[in-house]
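quick one before i forget lol
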Amino acid sequence: QLQLAESGGGLVQPGGSLRLSCVDSGSDLEFYPVAWFRQAPGREREGVSCISSTGDTTAYADSVKDRFTISRDNAKNTVYLQMDNLKPEDTAVYYCAVDSLPCSYYSGTYSLRGRLSDWGRGTLVTVSS
């Protein structure tokens, strides 16, 4: 059973950067595709990005393409989300989760279609001047 925990959020000015981490302290995360999703107050959950189990396939929501980069270090049971050029509309709680669909299914553009599971408590990202 996976036990995911997100970290790395905080307050950042527009144009700034943050790197989120998703660590699995349970069974091996390396066998699973992992997704990041976010939820802002009063808004629906939004898919952000996914990465395949080997890390060779990724997909991004149109809203974050060319600004966010997902990666993973399977030796550390960790998935990262590098977020650059942050905008106020990126403000949300960010979660990582296992996606029931392979990342290749999304053909480069990620959205919430699969069944997500095992997410943690999330980490809050606030983009504000």
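fyi The two ends are 40 Å apart (CA to CA).
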